[in-house]
Design goal:
Layout lengths: L5 H67 L2 H21 L4 H26 L3 H88 L14 H84 L1 H6 L2 H39 L7 E3 L1 H19 L6 E5 L7 E3 L1 H25 L8 E8 L3 E8 L6 H4 L19 H12 L3 E7 L3 E9 L2 H9 L1
Parallel strand pairs: 2-4
Antiparallel strand pairs: 1-3, 4-5, 5-7, 6-7
Length: about 550
């Protein structure tokens, strides 16, 4: 079967079905024809019975009118007897083909009856009643014979009609049984042949469908049925060639992918190195320029506090001469100057801490991990980012919300690199929230940046959420690609999030994801392993 084409299989199946149908139809036609002939024969016998009954009735009427004619001598009786005899002869004539001899015997008896009856009528006419009665008696004997003959004809016809009907019914039942057997056998044979043909087509087709489904998902290990001489074999050969092509393409894609990943890694390293070098140089220069005057401010503030205290001590005798009121005023002014100088010193130290952080971030360093307090690192980066934004735009303002998990233990990380990540996220959040404020129609809108930390046993989580403009869904998958930015041209380099992604995922073995809704919020989620071993295990997995 497998060596035949699908077209030839269908032709053979159709031919076999037609042959069975023709054979069955021929047999049924012949059986119906024979049964119809039997029914026609039975119908003819039934008509013969009707003619025999009619002939018997007509003879009875003839006998009645002949007897009445002999007695009454009426012309009406003579005409009625003649009409009854004519009807009887008509029915006997229709019965003659069935059994001519018996019909001839009936006619002879009827003729003899008629002769005796006619003679009896003549005798009654001549008023010889004794002779007439004798002739009527003789005629009556022949009428009895006629009745017997007609009754026997009816009985014989009835018997033959019943036999013919029984035979027709029997033949019809036999034909019905045989036709059922033939039809059942034809159905079984047709179903078996159909099963074989369909199986020879469906099974390879199902294998081909499975093979095509596997190849569609690039499963090159899928089994392809053997290629035969039929149409399915042609498709199998085509699929085999397609699989070979797919194997070759996958091999080339693997080579290209490896080369591309290597190129991306090299590119990212160069970009990161160049960016960090430029940023470090710029930050170091600015920090050094600020640090010198800041040292003077801090030193002179501390010195001025000491000088005021000395001045207050030295001027105490002279001040007491001025009176209690003037003395209180001088003390108040001196205390106010002392408080101002202390505030100057306090904020100068804070500024000095920011400058030291800038210098620390500007150093390339060795990337050594340190055990640090994550909440303190985030607080320091948040203050640094906020003051940097205020330095660029004095009108900038934003509400900072903190929700730190105080149960977080110190973790191992590279503080300078994580600070860069946080500064990038804080800066982007400031930009988005302030942009939303400028574009919002609601004057009551208040920019907010919220930072949250959470202890997750083997890792810690950092969430940075702003209520800015949000990010379109189609842009989220591109956020961490190098040189991609959502900011207008000239306002962003497209490297901040790319560098942050490399620091978190490649250097620290963590994850960074983003969730956003346009016009409502953007939230970055960073998860960092608590130790180097956990990070190494996560990276390997």
């Amino acid at each position: 079967m497998a060596r035949l084409t699908i077209r030839m299989r269908l032709i053979l199946l159709t031919s076999a079905g037609l042959l069975v149908l023709i054979t069955t139809n021929s047999y049924l036609t012949r059986a119906l024809s024979e049964n119809a002939a039997g029914m026609v024969k039975a119908a003819g016998l039934l008509r013969g019975i009707e003619h025999a009954d009619s002939a018997q009735i007509a003879f009875g009427e003839m006998r009645y009118w002949m007897t009445d004619l002999a007695v009454s001598q009426l012309t009406l009786s003579e005409r009625s007897a003649a009409a009854a005899r004519a009807r009887m002869e008509e029915h006997l004539g229709k019965l003659a083909p069935w059994n001519p001899d018996r019909i001839a015997a009936v006619r002879r008896e009827v003729t003899q009856y008629g002769e005796f009856a006619d003679k009896a009528v003549e005798e009654y006419t001549n008023d010889r009643r004794v002779i007439g009665n004798s002739l009527l008696a003789q005629a009556r004997q022949h009428s009895v014979v006629v009745d017997q003959l007609l009754a026997s004809i009816v009985n014989d016809l009835t018997g033959e009609a019943l036999a013919a009907r029984e035979q027709a019914v029997s033949e019809a039942a036999a034909a019905t049984r045989l036709s059922r057997i033939v039809v059942s056998a034809a159905v079984l044979v047709g179903a078996f042949l159909t099963f074989l043909v369909l199986r020879s087509i469906v099974v390879p087709l199902r294998q081909l469908v499975a093979a095509m489904a596997g190849l569609n998902v690039e499963n090159v290990d899928v089994a392809i049925p053997a290629a035969g001489p039929d149409e399915i074999g042609a498709v199998a050969r085509t699929l085999a060639r397609f699989r070979d092509t797919l194997l070759e393409r996958n091999r080339r894609e693997s080579e290209l992918r490896a080369a591309h990943e290597e190129l991306k890694a090299t590119q990212a390293s160069l970009i990161h190195a160049e960016k960090m070098a430029s940023l470090g140089q710029l930050t170091a220069g600015i920090a050094h320029e600020i640090k010198n005057p800041l040292n003077f401010v801090n030193n002179f503030a501390s010195l001025s506090v000491e000088l005021l205290n000395e001045l207050k001590q030295m001027a105490r005798p002279a001040i007491t001469v001025l009176g209690a009121v003037k003395c209180a005023e001088v003390d108040e002014v001196v205390d106010m100057l002392t408080g101002n100088l202390e505030k100057i010193a306090e904020h100068g130290k804070r500024a000095d801490g920011i400058v030291k952080s800038m210098l620390a971030h500007s150093r390339t360093g060795s990337g050594d991990r340190q055990t640090v307090d994550l909440n303190a690192l985030i607080e320091e980066a948040l203050n640094l980012a906020y003051h940097g934004a205020r330095a660029q735009d004095p009108n900038f303002n934003i509400t900072l919300e903190r929700e730190f998990d105080r149960a977080i233990a110190p973790i191992e990380l590279v503080p300078q690199d994580i600070s860069r990540v946080l500064l990038n996220l804080f800066g982007n959040g400031f930009y988005a929230a302030d942009k939303h404020r400028r574009e919002a129609a609601d004057p009551a809108f208040r920019p907010v940046l919220k930072v949250m930390t959470r202890d997750l046993a083997n890792e810690v989580e950092i969430r940075v959420r702003d209520n800015g403009t949000g990010i379109l869904p189609e842009l989220r998958d591109k956020l961490f690609q190098p040189f991609f930015t959502t900011k207008p041209t000239g306002e962003g380099t497209g490297l901040g999030l790319s560098i942050s992604y490399d620091i978190v995922t490649q250097q620290h073995g963590g994850t960074i994801t983003v969730d956003s809704r346009v016009g409502e919020f953007t939230e970055f989620t960073i998860r960092l392993p608590c130790s180097r071993q956990t990070a190494t295990a996560g990276t390997t997995a």
